[in-house]
């Protein structure tokens, strides 16, 4: 029964993930695209929960759906969010090439993973109860991966400073 | 684990990555290019977390969290660039921003 329910949740989350992903790419209005991205991120959070990554799922909803998408919506509202038809104004050869390139990436990854790791993918490891909990993530972050943790803080600081500078600089020609 | 194995998650991640790559290639509005980039980063995250579950080690989840931070930083800088471009009254179209073309 648990197996069946897990499959039902997985299929629903996967369908919602793929449709909202395609919606982000194909909606003409950037505002709708950003809203579709929220659905995409929420379905990803469901899949993370199925993979026993509780903390990452919570961080996904907080950081992405809560912060990043809101920032996108602010900028889209600020710029007026003009519609931009995905297929219009381009030679159809370019659109075709884009489809072929995206499909080629997908096929390449599938082939390489299947060739290199095909027989190791069938049996997942046994995990303890604490796997993926905030306590375990905190232990790893402040123990084995302390350098990544510290570098992360510097990356965020640099991005914040860069955002302020990019946002506040007024081009010379439009100055008083 | 109950439900689908890691291969199913990987297939999902690959399709999502290809969707994002297609969006980056086909769209001209830099805002939507950034949204499609977020999709690609998230597809990578899904693969990382699926492998973390497969091998039973938490390092993949740490990696995914770090990718999330990089994605947030990328969104900040990208949106800052877009706002700076729009301040110069240049049309927001990645095909027309050719000042740096060699």
What does this entry look like structurally?
The complex is a heterodimer of chains A (176) and B (102). By secondary structure, chain A is mainly α. Helices cover 74% and strands 0% of the residues of chain A. Chain A has six helices and no strands. In chain A, helix 2 runs antiparallel to helix 3. Chain B is mainly alpha-helical and 102 residues long. In chain B, 75% of the residues lie in helices and 0% in strands. Chain B is built from three helices and no strands. Chain B starts with 5 loop residues before the first helix and ends in a 15-residue tail after the last helix. Classes of the chains: A mainly alpha (176), B mainly alpha (102). The interface between A and B is large, with 89 and 72 residues.
For the CA atoms, what is the radius of gyration of chain B? Answer: 17 Å
Helix content of chain A: over 70%
DSSP helix count of chain A?
Answer: 6
Beta-strand percent range of chain A: under 5%
Q: What oligomerization state is this entry in? A: heterodimer
Instruction: Extract low-pLDDT stretches of chain A.
Output: none
In short:
Chain A has 176 residues and is mainly alpha-helical. In chain A, 74% of the residues lie in helices and 0% in strands.
Topology:
The complex is a heterodimer of chains A (176) and B (102).
Chain A (H helix, E strand, L loop, with lengths): L1 H25 L3 H21 L3 H26 L12 H26 L16 H9 L3 H23 L8
Helix pairs in contact in A: 1-2, 2-3
Chain B lengths: L5 H21 L3 H26 L3 H29 L15
Helix pairs in contact in B: 1-2, 2-3
């Amino acid at each position: 029964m648990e197996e069946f329910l897990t499959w039902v949740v997985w299929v629903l989350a996967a369908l919602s993930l793929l449709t909202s992903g395609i919606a982000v790419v194909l909606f003409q209005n950037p505002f709708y695209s950003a809203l579709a991205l929220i659905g995409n991120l929420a379905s990803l959070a469901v899949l993370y929960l199925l993979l026993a990554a509780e903390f990452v799922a919570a961080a996904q909803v907080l950081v992405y759906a809560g912060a990043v998408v809101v920032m996108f919506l602010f900028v889209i509202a600020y710029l007026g969010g003009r519609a931009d038809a995905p297929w219009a104004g381009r030679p159809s050869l370019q659109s075709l090439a884009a489809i072929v390139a995206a499909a080629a990436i997908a096929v390449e990854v599938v082939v390489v993973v299947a060739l290199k790791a095909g027989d190791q993918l069938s049996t997942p490891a046994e995990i303890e109860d604490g796997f993926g909990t905030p306590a375990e993530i905190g232990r790893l972050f402040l123990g084995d991966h302390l350098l990544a943790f510290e570098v992360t803080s510097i990356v965020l600081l640099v991005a914040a400073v860069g955002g302020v500078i990019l946002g506040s600089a007024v081009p010379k020609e439009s100055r008083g | 684990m109950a439900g689908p194995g890691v291969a199913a998650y990987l297939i999902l991640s690959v399709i999502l990555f290809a969707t994002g790559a297609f969006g980056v290639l086909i769209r001209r509005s830099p805002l939507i290019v950034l949204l499609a980039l977020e999709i690609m980063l998230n597809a990578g995250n899904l693969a990382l977390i699926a492998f973390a579950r497969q091998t039973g080690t938490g390092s993949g989840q740490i990696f995914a969290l770090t990718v999330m931070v990089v994605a947030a930083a990328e969104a900040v800088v990208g949106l800052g660039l877009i706002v700076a471009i729009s301040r110069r009254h240049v049309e927001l179209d990645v095909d027309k921003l050719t000042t740096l073309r060699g």
